[in-house]
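User: Modeling request: complex.
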Amino acid sequence: MKLLPLMIAIPLSVAFILPLLPKKRPRMADCLAVLATLALLALAAMLIGQSGVYALGGWRPPVGIVLVLDGLSWLVLITVALVSFLVTVFSARYMEQYTARGRYYALFMLMVAGMNGAVLTGDMFNLYVFIEVAAVASYALVAFGCHEEELEASFKYAVLGSIASSFILLGIALMYCLFGTVNMAHLGQKVSASGLNRAAIFSLVLFIAGFGLKAALVPFHAWLPDAHPSAPAPISAMLSGVLIKAIGVYALIRVLFNVFGVTAQVATALMVLGTISMVVAILMALIQWDLKRLLAYSSISQIGYVMLGFGVGGAVLAAGGSPVIAALGFLGALFHLVNHAVFKSLLFLSSGALEYATGTRQLKEMGGLGKEMPVTAGASLVASLAIGGVPPLNGFFSKLIIILACVSSGHYGFALAAVLVSIFTLAVYMKVQKYAFLGKPAEGRKSVHEVPAAMRIPMTLLAVLCLGMSLMLLPGPKKRVLDPAVQVLMDRDAYIQSVMGVASALGAGQETDMKIAEN
Amino acid sequence: MRKQISLLLLLIVAAGFALCLAGAPFGAEGARESRRLVKDNVNYGRRYVSKGLDENRCANIVTSVVLNYRGFDTLGEVTILFIAALGLGAVLYGRRAGASPDEAQRPSLILSTGCRLLFPLIMLVGIYIFIHGHLSPGGGFQGGAVIASGFLLICLGCRKKKLNSVALGAAESLSGLAFVLLALIGLAVGGSFLLNFLPTGKVYALFSGGIIPLIYIAIGVKVGSELSGIIDNLSGEVR
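Assistant: Request completed. Predicted assembly structure:
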């Protein structure tokens, strides 16, 4: 617990060191970045099963800023650490095509620092600051290639991202105005005590719109299909794999479930937004011929599943229904969130490998690559089957749990939509397999070689994870990893108590020094 | 017809916004209203004002809040500026390679001499502002901006002078690193990241406030070099 701030301090200091390294020795930057992400992964793994509140600067919670580690933040933290480690290993060879590697890794590290900060913080304004750190770094990374379409995509992303940020900031300002605090748990306490008036509900809507934009739910998704394909492939893997989850989905869920407390209306909004995203985006994915664009649309659709799971759980919780069914919905959503991070980053990495080898990302210009690039083809096949929901891969189980939660809570329509979208998803990925890896080579395509080992190894590891993560549902690992995260969403009072308990422990005679006489 | 419909929609949305915001308390009236709503009379603004002087011995309460109570936010904010400078550099880097630089008109003798005389004075003011950040209004961000304006003057007034972008980059990185290291020393010494571990001294003295003035110096150097770096990057295409 004492080392918790290192999750942010390590990537920050590495990001400050990286631009100082000699430009003629890009290998030094590679090594430093890989070491840093490895250290973060080790640190995150060490924190398993721990929980607690860290008061920065020694100030007790409502006065200073706190970091909160619990099951939910740990789950997202380890996912970010794992994906970013494998992506930096992949980057070492892939980014040889680009100049200015020091700058690339510095921006990458800052994005990781932003995500870790946003995941760990227990303070609304601090959440906003770290969301901006991660988002601004990602705007720069999307534009990294400096070609026309990349600059355009980055501009679009920056404009829509700034709109989202201003919604979030306005929401925080309104909440501060109403309740006089920005600490999440303290805010939650006051919301429970005084209820929500119209202005508070307005700020709730602002949060849904703002974080919804960051998570690219369907009415707010316009930036993602441009931004994610334009970035270099490792960055696409980070953006789709973890960024939209850490600063979009996770932040929204934390605010809705732990600060405001979920209501029936909010839960319905989540379910409807999730289902629309799921259905619309998969239909858009079906007609794409640009591989990375197809993957980007499919990300929106999968985020829809996650939101549907949270929505169903929230609906049951708000209606006072069976806690077992509510927990089932949350479990499915969280498991799918982690699974999607694994297989979508694998898919983006394999699309990067294809682009590295063939120089194109148009499906029609590939064909027959399965023989020439067996490792990439195998990894891509595993990920495609996982995202399509074929048993016994991880995607099958998480979708099954979400559908089961829908059925057992009586939301048959949503369950049907989830099943249908799953079939379409499989169709989309079979199209990728058919045009990229099977069949005859497209006319005029040169013969290619498999990508170097530094790129094959991360892909292989991720493919193994796609197979192995199904084991997380066994009672042992489930109890250690997934259940604590579900519990955080189920029990809002426990979250508030865990932070405010520290407040009273640190501040003896708290009541007297907090109550200031009115002039 | 479309115009009317969009106008109508706009009006409906505006009315909805007004209706919602009518419930939000603003100003003095609002403060009273929100205290009624919140019930327990806690006002963090007042808590910082009444306690800040004792707890940090830092005469400027704003600085005390920005760098100590909520120093972690400031670390993030400084980082965002760093990202903006870095990102701009990365985007312009690709463009600069091919482009042939434009020819700039040479400034007159009076202009360039005046700039050269003014430059040290501007530096002095900037440095004063961030060194005195914990005592008087101002601080690292403001001081840094003043310093960068000095470099901008040099760029405009004495066109032949080029900024040393390597040194600027080094100053930028090292000062950022200094901020993180100061925070980490707090972790090592007192077990808490960003802890104010130095003796806080006497209020209103130059050496007071513990690590607060040190952090503000780091921020001043960082903001100054970052903004100058941005100026350098943007003026890179002019010769």
